[in-house]
Amino acid sequence: MTKNRKRWPRRRLRKPRRVRGVAVLPSLFTLGNAICGFAAIYYAAMPEADFQKRFFISPLAFAGYLILIAILADAIDGRLARLSKSASNFGAQLDSLADVVSFGVAPAFLLIKLLAPTQAASPVVAPTVGKVIWLIAVIYLCCTALRLARFNVESVTDSSAHQTFRGLPAPGAAGIIASLVVLHQEFLGEATGLGDWLRDSIGVDLAIQVMVRALPVVTLVLALAMVSRIPYVHLLNQYLAGRRSFKHLVRLTIFLILCLVHLQIALVCMFCGFGLSGPVRILQKRWQSARGKAGLPSSPAASSAPDERLSG
């Protein structure tokens, strides 16, 4: 006597989907982003003396500029994909893989290479300092990968949904590190050509030491900001796309002039200002809501309005 066994329906295995079409121009910019990130790692690892003789710039500064070029390529590829109406899941995945290299691995490696001479200067605490720096670099890399994975899950291809970000974008965090490294190398190059008295009087040595000691803390804060829920605006969509006021154009023109005067300081101000914009906006909203609950006007114009109405 055979027992009646309950037969479960068999699941049909889905065939893997094939990529039928790829947007060529946005993908080339995305691959250029990855190439710049890989080149930044390669040139940062080169000996400084040989590199400076050939290119008249330090390898770390050259690597920082390559990361900044990768940020520009990352901004262009998404814009091209949306303008040509060719945004796809393939492009989003390729963009995130390139971003891990350019905005995760390359800045972390730059941090380790920049702080390597400080370990040699203090051999007693060098092993401990080296482990702490390596740990901060790994945390930054992991947070970058998590930030990009979360963005892929939560984002859509519609350009109207890209007005704000949750958490500091990976290109913004990489831009802060790269611009600080470039400024540090610029100050270091200027310091070598100055006398001891002049270096002490203008504070170049102090600025170099402050940047070196603050960079690990800044990197750790950037890593936590990337995986946070702090809202950040999309710079291209909010400030460059569409029609803007005349004052807006004047501000952008002044910023471009500042870039021509001193590019390194202008880049640091731009990226650090963007990094601080999210927390500042949250504090501003909380301050306004607290004043609203207390029944106080949020601005001087609002407090003068009743008096004007009474006097009229």
Task: Characterize the structure shown.
This protein is mostly helical and 312 residues long. The protein has one domain (24-297). It has 13 helices and two strands; from the N terminus they run H-H-H-H-H-H-E-H-H-H-E-H-H-H-H. Strands 1-2 form a two-stranded antiparallel ribbon. Helix 6 (126-154) packs across helix 9 (204-226). The protein is globular. The model is unreliable at 191-198, 301-306 and 308-312 (pLDDT under 50).
Main attributes of the structure:
two-stranded antiparallel sheet; disordered C terminus; globular; 13 helices; 75% helix; 2 strands; 2% strand; 312 residues; mainly alpha
Task: Lay out the secondary structure.
Elements: H1 24-44, H2 48-55, H3 59-83, H4 89-114, H5 116-121, H6 126-154, E1 164-166, H7 170-192, H8 196-202, H9 204-226, E2 231-233, H10 235-240, H11 246-261, H12 263-293, H13 300-311
Antiparallel strand pairs: 1-2
Helix pairs in contact: 1-3, 1-4, 3-4, 3-7, 4-6, 4-7, 6-9, 7-9, 7-12, 11-12
